[in-house]
């Protein structure tokens, strides 16, 4: 007999950050996210991000929604000590983990701030990455305009997003699963973004926009792994919005754990990569920085 999933319960708020109308990150959630993104599937996602961005030695790169710094660390290794990586995130708890991870890399700096008001790098960043951030942002157009603004002419951008309507999941009740996904779409600010992201990028002046998909496929249920964590979040927000009862949410999670135990777990969803370039002409627009004046010199190193 399989072991039931842990029933949903409230978590301590700590320094909780509310995104897109939902509480998403505190110290506990930051640690869980760090664990989930230290898995082979997520490592493969980061590798593809790096392949698409093609960061080079001495370049300056901005990681929007850097989380616990896993991608920033890999970016820093590629740009080297002569380059610069700036990670920005709204969660101080995430940034605490990121700073610890990259403490021996002098070319990395982390800044607390929002995707809709990005730090300026003076001459502009050579590249921008943004992974699973824009679905939490109500003003997606503003965030894209900010990314365009801080990129230098010829600069590249890679955005990664997910459309959860395409989730393939082996569960005992398909109707209940659809309720979970629908509730999640109601909980975030900009759901189902991949279908709209290409035109939005072009509208903000990006060129050479292209998209590709990377499936995240798991046939094993690992407590603390990314599929298990996402299932917990779906159930949590569906219950909180009264889309399902507490008993239904617990039964749904128990079923997934049992399928993991008997070898019948199946989870697959596409991550969509959008790659674009700021056209290499015209002048950089200027805008306000979210970085306090006393820290501006950290973002404007001599090149």
Cα Rg: 20 Å
Instruction: Compute the number of structural domains.
Output: 1
Class by SSE composition: alpha/beta
- Summarize the main sheet: 8 strands, mixed
Report the span from N to C terminus: 62 Å
- The geometry reads as globular
CATH class: Alpha Beta
Round the mean pLDDT to the nearest integer and report it. Answer: 87
Query: Roughly what fraction of the amino acids lie in strands?
Result: 15-25%
Q: What's the multimeric state?
A: single chain
Q: pLDDT under 50 segments (min length 5)?
A: 9-14, 283-303
Q: Which key features would you list for this structure?
A:
single chain, 303 residues, alpha/beta, Rossmann fold, eight-stranded mixed beta sheet, two-stranded antiparallel ribbon, 38% helix, globular, disordered C terminus
Structural description of this entry:
The chain is an alpha/beta fold and 303 residues long. It has a single domain, classed as Vaccinia Virus protein VP39 (Rossmann fold, 3-Layer(aba) Sandwich). The protein has ten helices and ten strands. It is globular, with a radius of gyration of 20 Å.
Q: What does the secondary structure layout of this molecule look like, with pairings?
A:
Blueprint: E1 17-19, E2 22-25, H1 27-36, H2 40-53, E3 60-64, H3 70-79, E4 84-89, H4 92-101, E5 108-112, E6 125-131, H5 140-150, E7 151-162, E8 168-169, H6 174-187, H7 194-203, E9 206-218, H8 226-240, H9 246-262, E10 267-278, H10 296-299
Parallel strand pairs: 3-4, 3-6, 4-5, 6-7
Antiparallel strand pairs: 1-2, 7-10, 8-10, 9-10
Helix pairs in contact: 6-8, 8-9
